[in-house]
TrEMBL record:
<feature type="signal peptide">
    <location>
        <begin position="1"/>
        <end position="20"/>
    </location>
</feature>
<keyword id="KW-0732">Signal</keyword>
<protein>
    <recommendedName>
        <fullName>Bacterial Ig domain-containing protein</fullName>
    </recommendedName>
</protein>
């Protein structure tokens, strides 16, 4: 069963544009009159409850943050003197991909990442961005997501900061990564050698069902094995897919023996 995702790509509207990427989440642009840098918003937390989502992050001080779902849905809040913002977003009735942008004067600068919120409360809340690992924001530890561009796969997840995490694929030799101070780890699994794979993280195995093939729905969150998958277009010729583990694992997510 598939459900449509709301997607809106916004253009950067600038009088005299000059931009440079600094982070997978955002970009910066110079204001030719004020000679200041406008920093695109960076979301660092999203807390979900029955009423909706509390989204928090960092952007340029004294600016306006807008989260857009479609042409009829937008939520806005101002940033404080320290650039922090907290914005309440109602619970979506369906899976949604939000565009997050900053508005200052006549400038509108969107973040490079988009905010994915599953309509199903057990589904993912995550930041997705072209060419970068997805970043889960809903609670969880262990394997969070497997991202793929059709040639290579990247696994990422969470653990206690500084913890050594053992990851293996299809029973092969374990590779060790260290969780960052923020409690996140990422591992490039290398070139795709089989349609599916069993990924074991610290003794717990997940059956990754694969990218779904060229006939899989585009820009839709679908149930895939014991997780949820999103396949989305980067351009007319490039695509990226993300497979998210779910909070209530089925028989495929089990301790290894």
């Amino acid at each position: 069963m598939t459900r449509p995702i709301v997607i809106l790509m916004l253009a950067i509207v600038l009088s005299t544009p000059a931009s440079c990427g600094r982070d997978p989440q955002g970009s910066t642009v110079a204001d030719s009159q004020a000679e200041e840098w406008v920093e695109a918003p960076m979301i660092d937390r999203a807390t979900r409850d029955a009423a909706g989502l509390q989204v928090s992050g960092q952007a340029s001080p004294g600016s306006r943050i807008v989260i857009r779902g479609d042409t009829r849905t937008a939520f806005a809040v101002g940033t404080g003197s320290d650039g922090r913002f907290d914005l309440r977003v109602p619970a979506p009735e369906r899976d949604s991909l939000y565009v997050v942008e900053i508005q200052t004067g006549e400038h509108a600068v969107p973040a490079a990442t988009r905010l994915l919120v599953a309509g199903d409360p057990s589904g993912p809340v995550a930041l997705i961005s072209p060419g970068s690992p997805s970043k889960r924001l809903d609670p969880g530890t262990g394997l969070d997501v497997v991202d793929s561009d059709g040639r290579t796969r990247i696994a990422s997840g969470r653990a206690v900061a500084g913890k050594k995490v053992a990851i293996s694929v299809d029973g092969g030799e374990a590779r060790i990564v260290t969780a960052s101070p923020a409690g996140r780890w990422t591992l490039n699994l290398g070139a795709i050698r089989a349609p599916s794979a069993t990924i074991t993280v610290d003794g717990t195995s997940h059956v990754f069902p694969g990218e779904g093939g060229t006939d899989a729905p585009i820009d839709r969150l679908v149930r895939s094995g014991d997780g949820m998958a999103l396949r989305w277009k980067l351009s007319d010729t490039a695509q990226q897919s993300s497979w998210f583990t779910i909070s209530s694992p089925g028989p495929s997510a089990r301790p290894s023996r």
